[in-house]
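U., I forgot to send this yesterday:
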Amino acid sequence: MNLLIFGPQGCGKGTQADKLSEKHNLVHVETGYIFRKIGEKDTPLGKKIKEINEKKEMIPDDIMVDILKSELEKIPAEKGLIIDSAPRLTSQIEIIEKMLANLGRSVDKAISITLPREESIDRISKRYICPACNKQFVLGENIQSKNDPCPECGGPIRQRLDDTPDGITKRLNTFQEVTVPVIEHYRQREMLIEVDGRKRVDEVFEDINSKL
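Result:
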């Protein structure tokens, strides 16, 4: 089984993708994390990705597909996929589906987790990440202070650079403008599973699985 998962910032799609990976023996391909790690490298591609990320711009289609292809080629054919936040543009749909077909894969379902804009902003403002182990935590739930160490590895935690009010607003606007049309594309093809992200994590997970 090969899935796509979409949703605005703060909707919990990373958490759901991890839970779906465990239940259905899938590999969670988190495109945002992949690009951030490449952007940390002192290479021509790393410097280019870092510059694009700092400008809050979209990764060009050709670079995005080349990077995604190199990641997917590492995954054994018997393992399914759940691709997090790709394709992000309608121009990428055909390119990515053709690339998947060349790897002997096809998209079975697309999952959309909905969340009101106000709740998305509220959730992101409380979100912290550990750069060492890439675990995410919520202020007031997993951690009680922004100065707490990572509960998983003990390292320092921080907010992502774009988890500022301006950064959040820009990312939500981008999601609405460029990614919602991708979601609508899969709705029209009757491939879309849509769930309410305001529910508790286990309820969202149950909704997704019942529709799968």
